[in-house]
Design brief:
InterPro entries: PH_bac. Keywords: Membrane, Transmembrane, Transmembrane helix. It comes from Streptomyces fuscichromogenes. The structure is a single chain. The chain is α+β, with helices and mostly antiparallel strands. It folds into two domains: about 30 residues; about 110 residues, Pleckstrin-homology domain (PH domain)/Phosphotyrosine-binding domain (PTB) (PH-domain like), CATH 2.30.29. The longest helix is centred in the N-terminal third of the chain and has 32 residues. It is elongated.
Length: about 190
C-alpha cells in the first residue's frame, strides 16, 4: 500500500504553455490562408484577362415581346461549349448567382441580381439540354438546364438550375423548338 500512497502524493507541475510558439503558428497559418486566397484571386483575374477577347454581352431589347416561359433559380456559370470545367469568367459570366430567366421570341433574357445581366438572342441559341454538371458544379443527372449559344466566335454553355426542377424539361423543348435548323428542302432522300 505504501507505493500507491507515494504515487498519489508525488507532486508534478502542469506543463507550461508556450504562448509565443502558439501565436507564431496561428499567425503563420493566417498568412498561409491569405496567400492561398490571394493566389486564387489572381488566377481568377488572369483567366479573365486571357478571355478578354470575348465581346460585350448583349442586353435585352426594349420590347422583347411576350414571355413564353419564365423561371427563377440559380445561374451556375458558363463554360466553353462541351468543356464543362473550362469556366468563362470574362464579362461577369463566372459569377454564380440567383437568376430570373424569361424566354421570348427575341431570345433568352437572364436577369441576375448583384451580377451582370445578359441576353441571348434567339438566332444565337444552338441547343438546350438537361445535364448534370457545369463549371465545377455537379448535380444529379438531368438536374441542370444547359443552354448552348454563340457569342462572337465562341460557343458557350450556360448552366441554370430552376427552383422547380420539373419545369426544366419544358424549357429544353421550348428553346430547341426556337432554334432555326438549316433547311433540307430539295435534298435527296
Amino acid at each position: 500500500m505504501t507505493p500507491l500512497i507515494l504515487l498519489a502524493d508525488e507532486k508534478k507541475s502542469a506543463a507550461v504553455t508556450d504562448w509565443s510558439a502558439r501565436v507564431g503558428w496561428l499567425v503563420g497559418l493566417a498568412l498561409f490562408v491569405a496567400l492561398v486566397y490571394w493566389l486564387m484571386r489572381e488566377g481568377w483575374k488572369w483567366r479573365g484577362t486571357l478571355q478578354g477577347d470575348l465581346p460585350e454581352l448583349p442586353t435585352a431589347p426594349d420590347d422583347p415581346g411576350e414571355a413564353k416561359l419564365t423561371m427563377s433559380g440559380r445561374y451556375h456559370g458558363s463554360t466553353t461549349a462541351g468543356q464543362w470545367l473550362d469556366r468563362i469568367v470574362a464579362r461577369g459570366l463566372g459569377s454564380r448567382s440567383r437568376a430570373e430567366l424569361t424566354l421570348t421570341d427575341a431570345g433568352l433574357d437572364v436577369v441576375r441580381p448583384g451580377a451582370t445581366d445578359f441576353f441571348i438572342p434567339a438566332d444565337a441559341l444552338r441547343e438546350a439540354l438537361l445535364g448534370k454538371g457545369i463549371a465545377g458544379k455537379v448535380l444529379t443527372e438531368g438536374g441542370l438546364l444547359v443552354v448552348t449559344w454563340q457569342h462572337g466566335d465562341r460557343l458557350i454553355d450556360s448552366g441554370f438550375r430552376s427552383d422547380h426542377a420539373a419545369e426544366q424539361t419544358e424549357w429544353v423543348e421550348a428553346i430547341n423548338s426556337m432554334i432555326k435548323t438549316p433547311s433540307t428542302e430539295g435534298a435527296e432522300r
